[in-house]
Amino acid sequence: MKIIIAPDSFKESLTALQVADAIAAGMREVWPDATYVKVPVADGGEGTVQAMIDALGGRRVDVRATGPLGQVVDAFYGDAGGVAVIEMAAASGLEGVPPDLRDPRTATSRGTGELIRAALDAGARRVVLGVGGSATNDGGAGMLQALGVRLLDADGRDLGPGGAELARLDRIDASGLDVRVRETEFHIACDVDNPLVGPRGASAVFGPQKGATPDMVQELDAALAHFADVIRRDLGQDVAHLPGAGAGGGIAAAMVVFLQGRLRPGIEIVTEAVGLDAQVRDADLVVTGEGRIDGQTVNGKTPMGVAKVARRHGKPVVAIGGSLARDADAVYTEGIEVVVAAVARPCSVAEALGAADENLRRAARNLAAALALGARLRQ
């Protein structure tokens, strides 16, 4: 029997590979002779770099980069089988900004551009960028500046950092854009369809969680609308209402225009890169999971991406969640046949995180035993 184990990480406790190891250990207690193939995956958000490294035998590359406040931060990207995997949050993330300092009017995505440049320096010609968790709302302006694009005001001076500065944009000079960009394939892991501007745009929907007040939201939305107008005038592309362009504080729009990037669901990019389809083709069972399974899981999260691959080959899928929400049943209509929780008793979050490995092993053992019993009863 061949069992594919393809989970996401359990945030704040286990990497995707550690989750797969624990599940395999538990199931092996019931099926000691089965073949277990561990394929750690992610949906383009936090943990994507580590999952791709673990699945493809790559390495983490540490880079000193510009943080969202202009400070120097320790960032990284993954070199996974010749593919550069970048999490925007590694250099331009919200988590590292104290709540009282969060201000998307001045936060910059320059560090993300520096990570891209470092990957190009290392020879990468295929780049995957996950845009979740950013502190920025600058339409990717900082990233573009790091890659050689000049954003100029009416006096011919370069704009400063932050989304608010885009209101002063007079013209775009892309002649200095790093020439290696034209030789590189860019994929943007994007699981939202929000446009760049408007009531569902980057500023209105994501700005408040980055520290924007209602007045700031209006200011930032107007600045991004002006940015889109100048892009349309100077470059002939209309990205203001492009679905997904608002992801990452609008960095997705800049990547589409200047880097010819493709917007794709993150889990689709990752499962394709790690070769999940080929592994599932001759499997008997597919096991997936994530830290919390709920109604949002069906919206492009890892278990759904894995289930989609398994459905193509008619393979049964079961899932283990660190916890299950009341609306977790939503996944049953999407191809997952059994869902179980790793936490078996009431406990604090700290206790659940501390015992994640043992909880997963036990849940996987019990799940395998139940499946084995069901098989015997059918005989």
From TrEMBL:
Q: What are the entry keywords?
A: Kinase, Transferase
What is the official name of this protein in its record?
Answer: Glycerate kinase
Q: Does the keyword Transferase apply?
A: yes
Q: Which domain of life is it from?
A: Bacteria
Write down a Pfam family by its short name: Gly_kinase
- Indicate whether Transferase appears among the record's keywords: yes
- State the similarity comment: Belongs to the glycerate kinase type-1 family.
Q: Which GO terms describe its molecular function?
A: kinase activity
